[in-house]
Amino acid sequence: MKKESFYVPNVADKDLAALPPGTRSWIRTQEERVGFVVQEIEQYQDDHPPKPRKSRKPRSAAEIEKEETERHAKLEMLHWRKVREERPFSIHLEAPGNALLCRVEPADGSHQIHAADGTLLARTTRHKGRIVPWPRRARWELALPSQDLPYEATEGSVIGWILYSIWFPLVVALFLAMMFFLDGNAIFLGSGDPTRTKWRTATSRCGLKYRKNVYHTDPEELDHRIAYAQAVIHRWRTNVV
């Protein structure tokens, strides 16, 4: 079986009507969609009405309603981003019937990945990075009941972090200089932390790799259900999507 490459983008608003409620992300290759992610999250309750804003021209009822709808949608998306790691989700095949591929449930700081029949496939845990007492990159541990050695991964390569530690202070200094000379109108264009990640055991090939927003997996090495679920969790933990 050949290696597979896929990515996990957000679902476009225009496609939501044709999908089950709670659909958040795709599982997609370069050629087609192979699955989608469904998560049940309670609807956001907006308990803080907007402050009246000053406007030079009167607005129609339709304009006010449109603005309120957009505002509520934005707040609901921010709420989802905040709680998505705390809620179970399921991955379904993009095919007639939308068959359940696997289900993921948070458990004690980890996520358990279950097959459609409830069998435990894997447990994945992310350990945060730190600066003191010595620097350590954030790392992942993906344990499978079927094998003794877990898949382990660290976020960002050593070279990537060295270059980032050199480049980032220069970017910040440039931004501050632009703020001074442009009267505070500069835009910060710095990049995020290095995120290149490889999941591998001490004795095996790489089961899953993430680089430049694309995941690469070897189905002979790692079950594609586990690869999809781990990719979604990784995407949600390390990126704002």
Write the layout of secondary structure elements.
Elements: E1 4-6, E2 23-28, E3 33-39, H1 61-83, E4 89-93, E5 100-107, E6 110-115, E7 120-127, E8 139-143, E9 151-154, H2 158-181, E10 197-200, E11 206-211, E12 214-217, H3 224-238
Antiparallel strand pairs: 1-12, 2-3, 3-4, 4-5, 5-6, 6-7, 7-8, 8-9, 10-11, 11-12
How would the global form be characterised?
globular
The amount of beta strand, in percent, is 25-35%
Cross-sheet strand order for the largest sheet: 2-3-4-5-6-7-8-9
Cα separation of the termini? 31 Å
Quote the average pLDDT: 78
Rg is 21 Å
H/E order of the elements?
Answer: EEEHEEEEEEHEEEH
In terms of structural class, how would the helical and strand content be classed? Answer: alpha+beta
| Total count of helical runs of at least 4 residues | 3
* Main pleated sheet: 8 strands, antiparallel
Taking pLDDT < 50 over at least 5 consecutive residues as the criterion, the unreliable ranges are 185-190
The number of strands is 12
Bin the helical content. Answer: 25-40%
Task: Give an overview of the whole structure.
This protein is α+β, with helices and mostly antiparallel strands and 241 residues long. The protein has three helices and twelve strands; from the N terminus they run E-E-E-H-E-E-E-E-E-E-H-E-E-E-H. The strands form two sheets. The chain has an eight-stranded antiparallel beta sheet, covered by helices on one side. Strands 1-12-11-10 form a four-stranded antiparallel beta sheet, with helices on one face. It is globular, with a radius of gyration of 21 Å. The relative contact order is 0.15.
